[in-house]
Amino acid sequence: MDNMPPNFKISTNFTTTNISKRAPNTITVSYSTSAYSSTGGPLFVKLPNYGNPINSYAQSGFKNAGFPVSLDFSSGSLNGSIWTRVANKPEF
Questions:
Q1: SS3 string of the chain?
Q2: Distance (Å, rounded) from C-alpha 12 to C-alpha 35?
Q3: 54 φ/ψ sector (left φ>0, alpha ψ -120 to 50, else beta)
Protein backbone atom coordinates (compact mmCIF):
# COMPACT_ATOMS: atom_id res chain seq x y z
CA MET A 1 0.00 0.00 0.00
CA ASP A 2 2.96 2.34 0.59
CA ASN A 3 3.65 2.26 -3.16
CA MET A 4 0.29 3.80 -4.12
CA PRO A 5 0.70 7.53 -3.21
CA PRO A 6 3.29 8.18 -5.96
CA ASN A 7 0.84 6.78 -8.54
CA PHE A 8 -1.96 9.01 -7.24
CA LYS A 9 0.39 12.00 -7.27
CA ILE A 10 1.32 11.74 -10.95
CA SER A 11 -2.30 11.19 -12.04
CA THR A 12 -3.73 14.39 -10.53
CA ASN A 13 -3.84 18.00 -11.61
CA PHE A 14 -4.57 20.17 -8.52
CA THR A 15 -6.20 23.61 -8.63
CA THR A 16 -6.84 25.81 -5.61
CA THR A 17 -10.13 27.54 -4.89
CA ASN A 18 -11.11 31.03 -6.01
CA ILE A 19 -11.43 32.66 -2.58
CA SER A 20 -13.42 35.61 -4.01
CA LYS A 21 -16.29 33.23 -4.87
CA ARG A 22 -16.58 31.76 -1.37
CA ALA A 23 -18.79 32.88 1.52
CA PRO A 24 -16.94 34.91 4.21
CA ASN A 25 -16.99 32.07 6.77
CA THR A 26 -15.58 29.55 4.27
CA ILE A 27 -12.49 31.38 3.00
CA THR A 28 -9.97 29.84 5.41
CA VAL A 29 -9.05 26.64 3.64
CA SER A 30 -6.08 24.46 4.60
CA TYR A 31 -4.35 22.43 1.93
CA SER A 32 -0.98 21.24 0.72
CA THR A 33 0.10 20.91 -2.89
CA SER A 34 2.87 18.43 -2.05
CA ALA A 35 0.58 15.43 -2.60
CA TYR A 36 -0.10 16.48 -6.20
CA SER A 37 2.07 16.53 -9.31
CA SER A 38 3.49 19.89 -10.37
CA THR A 39 3.13 18.88 -14.03
CA GLY A 40 -0.43 17.64 -13.63
CA GLY A 41 -2.12 14.46 -14.75
CA PRO A 42 -5.47 13.71 -16.39
CA LEU A 43 -7.56 13.80 -13.18
CA PHE A 44 -8.54 17.34 -12.16
CA VAL A 45 -8.74 17.76 -8.38
CA LYS A 46 -9.63 21.04 -6.74
CA LEU A 47 -11.06 22.79 -3.75
CA PRO A 48 -14.53 23.88 -4.85
CA ASN A 49 -15.23 27.57 -5.45
CA TYR A 50 -18.45 27.22 -3.48
CA GLY A 51 -17.82 26.62 0.19
CA ASN A 52 -20.85 25.39 2.08
CA PRO A 53 -21.10 27.58 5.21
CA ILE A 54 -21.83 24.50 7.35
CA ASN A 55 -18.31 23.25 6.57
CA SER A 56 -16.64 25.89 8.73
CA TYR A 57 -18.85 24.87 11.67
CA ALA A 58 -18.13 21.20 11.04
CA GLN A 59 -14.39 21.94 10.89
CA SER A 60 -14.66 23.79 14.23
CA GLY A 61 -16.57 20.83 15.71
CA PHE A 62 -13.95 18.34 14.56
CA LYS A 63 -11.21 20.51 16.06
CA ASN A 64 -13.08 20.80 19.38
CA ALA A 65 -13.58 17.02 19.42
CA GLY A 66 -9.82 16.52 19.18
CA PHE A 67 -9.47 15.67 15.48
CA PRO A 68 -6.33 17.24 14.03
CA VAL A 69 -6.65 19.39 10.92
CA SER A 70 -4.95 17.57 8.06
CA LEU A 71 -3.76 19.38 4.95
CA ASP A 72 -4.80 16.52 2.68
CA PHE A 73 -5.71 12.85 2.61
CA SER A 74 -3.98 12.38 -0.76
CA SER A 75 -0.53 11.93 0.75
CA GLY A 76 -1.58 8.69 2.44
CA SER A 77 -2.43 9.84 5.98
CA LEU A 78 -6.14 9.62 6.77
CA ASN A 79 -5.89 11.00 10.30
CA GLY A 80 -7.87 14.20 10.93
CA SER A 81 -10.31 16.38 9.05
CA ILE A 82 -9.91 18.21 5.74
CA TRP A 83 -11.71 20.60 3.45
CA THR A 84 -13.32 18.44 0.79
CA ARG A 85 -11.76 18.20 -2.65
CA VAL A 86 -13.78 17.54 -5.78
CA ALA A 87 -12.86 16.00 -9.11
CA ASN A 88 -13.86 18.41 -11.88
CA LYS A 89 -12.31 20.81 -14.34
CA PRO A 90 -10.91 24.05 -12.88
CA GLU A 91 -13.42 26.30 -14.65
CA PHE A 92 -16.30 24.85 -12.59
A1: CCCHHHHHHHHEEEECCCHHHCCHHHCCCCCCCCCCCCCCCCEEEECCCCCCHHHHHHHHHHHHCCCCECCCCCCCCCCCECCCCECCCCCC
A2: 9
A3: alpha
Please give the model's pTM, rounded to 2 decimal places: 0.63
User: Given this model, what pLDDT does residue 66 score?
Assistant: 93
Q: Residue 67 in contact with residue 81, Cβ under 8 Å?
A: yes
d(CA 50, CA 38): 24
Virtual CA dihedral for 72, 6, 77, 24, nearest 10 degrees?
A: 0
Neighbours of 26 (CB within 10 A): 20
